[in-house]
Specification:
Layout: H1 32-38, H2 44-57, H3 61-69, H4 73-87, H5 89-95, H6 100-110, H7 116-122, H8 128-138, H9 154-159, E1 170-175, E2 181-185, H10 190-198, E3 204-208, H11 211-222, H12 225-244, H13 251-268, E4 270-277, E5 281-288, E6 291-299, H14 300-313, E7 325-330, H15 336-341, H16 343-346, E8 349-357, E9 363-371, H17 379-382, H18 386-396, E10 401-406, H19 413-422, E11 431-435, E12 446-449, H20 456-471, E13 476-479, H21 485-496, E14 500-505, H22 513-519, H23 524-530, E15 531-543, E16 549-550, H24 554-566, E17 576-577, E18 591-601, H25 605-612, H26 617-624, H27 631-640, H28 646-652
Parallel strand pairs: 2-3, 10-14, 10-15, 11-12, 11-13, 13-14
Antiparallel strand pairs: 1-2, 4-5, 4-9, 5-6, 7-8, 8-9, 15-18, 16-17
Helix pairs in contact: 2-3, 3-4, 5-6, 7-8, 11-13, 12-13, 20-21, 22-23, 23-25
Bound molecules: zinc ion.
Length: 657
């Protein structure tokens, strides 16, 4: 026995990470030999013999087992087939989320010898993460989703002097609990480079991640992105001063500053950036998790230069911006070199610009970041509880009805709305939308972009679009927001005439939709008849997992304790609050990311009865959402799990009295 060679299974056959991926099972590709052992057809020692014969003879393992070890050929064939099913291109595409029709189309293109990942990308069904998943599956490596950013142990790596290369397609993550070092790569070729760079630190365990994820890790964890931004501002200020003294100025410096600012905002997780002038200075402000934060001051000349640059880029004539806001987008379309250099920014995000200029010469620019791959685009990832998720799925499977999402601006309604639409097969159902703006382009939806419908002309344009849309006979209609009587009327009519209609409404609580529709001239009883579902939601800031501290204030215990009596499972040791001043992981705010809280109203006979009897919103709310079902109760659940703090909850959800 001792003469037998040791059984060496290829390292990549067993992924180091078994974290669940949003694409379903992690890509575990077991080799034929492993399967034979696992299924009891071979013992490990016999496999060792077979492998050494295979290496010496160059024959296939299945043949060796059949001829030398008398393994049942039928079993070998069956296992080989199963293995093929797991790792074949069709299986990979299915796991990445393509439907049967798309898979067969993609496979036809395989005949032209195009690489599978490129085919996957070109089908338009897979985003950057999906393509990374396909890459991972093809190289039999685990795929890591964007949450990998939270797993990076910068301190541990720095303590061991692990080098980081900012311009490479790989980045170290942490030392693995199983030994060796974990590295994220973005291209198959980077694997060998990573091995060369880090083999001194033990086994190199690679995981595939998207380019954006790796760029975000580099930006957020290993480089002081804010310091980089401040340096770019310094250079631009110097250039502005040179220009003022008549010297030649370099226009590129300002363009680079703008691109650097956008990259900083994208990777630091901001939702908006604002530049505005005060009397003598300009201010740069960014909004993180719903809270604005001043980044730095800049000089008026630099602010004016950036303002004009943005206007030009968005094809807005500066003279046209006077005492009003003008909308556009920043694209860098005229600067392919810069677009290429900042590809992680411009390929993934788009930037909605709103320029303003006051009579006194003050100027402002708001840039809204739209992430074409924003997280939470599947209903499983939005954060619904299991029974609510099945209620949503039931509604999505119906041919008609009206689904409303409610909440104030910035409560994540659009994300939830897109997630629901994403769950509908666009090949079987024709999906058409009217939005302002279109936040996410979808290859298989027909999307109309309209103005805010604030003026008569815009209202007419909206109605035109709606009529045009109905002529196309869609199955599913999404109206970005119901603001006007026309929109309310049309939404209900469309639901009545066999369409599944989705929209958002600016009310606080689910039970208030009936009152609001009455205000918009729609009989609440008619609404109740066609309404399928209402979800009211808010986003609550999440505590930073690195620096949050236990919270044992009596106030909190009283609050959670009384809920615990009836419906809340609660372990007092779990309660947390933000650490004043935060840490580098949370940008010194104590919070990182946001979680959704919601309440769901399914208009059943009881609800219709209440509407019939004219029961008001407040009373309906109390009757429907008692005992742990309200927005606030959902927030208490987060609080009890130590995910958010009382302060953050009160910021977002009104406390019941
Ligand atoms: Zn922190």
């Amino acid at each position: 026995m001792s003469a037998l060679p040791q059984v060496v299974l290829r390292e990549h056959a067993l992924p180091a990470n078994d974290a669940p991926s949003p694409f379903g099972d992690p890509p575990v590709f077991r080799l034929l030999g492993e399967l034979l052992v696992a299924e009891g057809h071979l013992d490990p020692a016999a496999l060792g013999t077979a492998l050494s014969v295979q290496r010496a003879s160059g024959r296939r393992l299945g043949e060796v087992c059949r001829d030398c070890l008398d393994t049942d050929p039928a079993c070998i064939d069956a296992l080989a087939l199963r293995q093929q099913e797991h790792r074949g291109p069709a299986a990979i595409l299915r796991r990445a989320g393509l439907g049967p029709h798309q898979v067969s189309q993609a496979l036809r293109r395989l005949e032209s010898r195009e690489p599978l990942w490129r085919i996957a990308r070109d089908t338009g069904y897979l985003d950057e993460e999906g393509v990374a998943f396909v890459h991972a599956a093809l190289s039999a490596l685990p795929y890591a989703d964007p949450s990998l950013v939270d797993e990076v142990d910068a301190e541990g790596l720095a303590a061991a002097s692990v080098p980081v290369f900012a311009d490479q397609a790989f980045v170290p993550i942490r030392f693995s609990p199983a030994g060796g070092i974990e590295v994220a790569i973005t291209q198959p070729e980077a694997r060998a480079l990573a091995h060369n760079a880090y083999h001194a630190f033990g086994a190199v365990r690679c995981r595939f991640a998207s380019r954006s994820t790796v760029q975000e890790i580099l930006c957020r964890t290993f480089s002081d992105a804010r310091a980089g931004l401040l340096r770019a501002i310094e250079r631009a200020e110097a250039a502005v001063r040179r220009a003022a003294s008549g010297e030649e100025s370099d226009h590129d410096i300002n363009r680079r500053l703008l691109a650097t600012l956008l990259r900083f905002a994208c990777h630091a997780g901001a939702s908006d950036v604002r530049l505005y002038s005060t009397l003598y200075r300009g201010t740069l402000n960014a909004r993180f998790d719903g809270v604005g934060q001043d980044l730095t001051e800049i000089s008026r000349p630099l602010l004016d230069a950036l303002w004009v640059l943005m206007a030009n880029d968005a094809r807005i004539r500066p003279e046209s911006v006077s005492n009003r806001l003008v909308e556009g987008s920043i694209t860098f379309q005229d600067d392919p070199a810069m677009r290429e250099e900042f590809a992680d920014v411009f390929e993934r995000y788009s930037f909605r610009l709103e320029l303003g200029s006051s009579a006194g010469g003050g100027r402002s620019a708001s840039i809204r970041l739209l992430d074409s791959q924003s997280a939470g685009t599947s209903i499983e990832r939005v954060g619904y509880e299991a029974q609510d998720l099945s209620a949503i799925r039931r509604v999505l499977a119906q041919p008609d009805g009206l689904v409303l999402l409610t909440g104030p601006t910035g409560s994540g309604k659009t994300t939830s709305l897109y997630a629901m639409l994403e769950a509908i097969d666009p090949e079987r159902m024709s999906i058409q939308t009217i939005e302002n703006p279109v936040e996410r382009r979808h290859g298989k939806w027909l999307q109309y972009e309209v103005g805010k419908a604030a003026t008569d002309t815009e209202r007419d344009a909206f109605l035109d679009h709606f009529r045009q849309l109905l002529r196309n006979d869609p199955d599913v209609i999404m109206l970005g927001e119901i603001r006007s009587r026309e929109a309310a009327r049309l939404a209900v009519q469309a639901a009545q005439t066999g369409h599944l209609v989705f929209s958002t409404l600016h009310v606080d609580r689910a039970a208030q939709v009936f009152g609001r529709f009455r205000g918009l001239g729609v009989d609440p009883r008619e609404l109740a008849e066609h309404l399928s579902l209402v979800v009211a939601q808010r986003l609550v800031r999440r505590l930073c997992p690195r620096c949050a501290v236990p919270d044992d204030r009596p106030l909190l215990h009283e609050l959670l304790g009384s809920a615990a009596v009836s419906w809340l499972a609660w372990n007092p040791a779990l309660a947390r609050r933000g650490f004043p001043g935060g840490c580098s992981h949370c940008n010194f705010t104590g919070y990182r990311g946001r979680a959704m809280v919601y309440e769901m109203l399914e208009p059943d006979a009881g609800v219709r009865n209440m509407v019939e009897c004219g029961v008001g919103g407040l009373e309906m709310e109390q009757r429907l959402f008692a005992g742990g079902r309200s927005l606030w109760d959902q927030g208490l659940r987060l609080l009890a799990r130590g995910l958010t703090s009382l302060e953050a909850l009160r910021e977002s959800v009104r406390e019941p009295r």
